[in-house]
Amino acid sequence: MLSLSFPLQFKKNTVNFNSSISEDSRTLGMSGYIGDRFDYGSSISYQDQGQTSLNINGTYRTNYTTIGASFGQSDTYQQEMINLNGSLVAHSQGILFGPDQVQTMVLVYAPQATGARVGNTPGLSINKQGYAVIPYVIPYRLNDISLDPQGMPSTVELTETSHRIAPYAGSITKVNFSTKTGYAVFINTQTPNGGHLPFAAQVFNQNNEIVGMVAQGSRIYLRTPLTQDHLYVKWGQSNSEECQLDYDIQSKILQEKQSIIMTEAVCK
């Protein structure tokens, strides 16, 4: 028996051509992936007795179920099949559907992070309610649970992107990811005489909550739901080691429609 295989890859798409020849049959096949949700396969076989058979199949993964379809035909039969696989998880906030049937799972919760990709499972992302079900975790061993912010709204930020857990066999373990919501704002600041603010100085809002820090080049980064605010910058305990600034980004939001807002302010 002779077998040949030719794998090819184009960005996120993969295709593999294969051929096999034996004493009484010949088979030509093709299989591959399109993105991280759809895989397919097809083959055609010819027997020396004159019988020819054709088989085609495909599987598509959604956040809620796995959809499979196949078609087979030869000189003596024809078969079509469609199947749905998945799981149902009931938790304190409702019911969640998953694409796989497994015993040990992880329930991920990342509020407002709709569209964030789950690094452990191709094609899986956080749904509109902030949840996702991860299958195929290994019980009694450390598993890395990670989120990729690509795909989620620009007004949401993950304050953490990974956790490590060791689940029990047959358990559903909940993992919470913290998020911040609001506009991503960069404020280029300076003192009244044109100087830079001290690096790593802390930035407080009017409720005396830390909302940011001064980075290199006297630039402040904030994730805030407010289009305007009054901020305090402190780098010591005395009154001489602090200053105050105001920002207003309402007009920039309407004009630029950018995911990151740049503005300037003088800290007095």
From TrEMBL:
Residue ranges of domain PapC-like C-terminal in the record: 187-250
Protein name: Type VII secretion system (T7SS), usher family protein
One GO cellular component term: cell outer membrane
Single GO molecular function: fimbrial usher porin activity
Cited InterPro entries: Fimb_usher, FimD_plug_dom, PapC-like_C, PapC-like_C_sf
GO process terms (BP): pilus assembly
Superkingdom as given in the UniProt entry: Bacteria
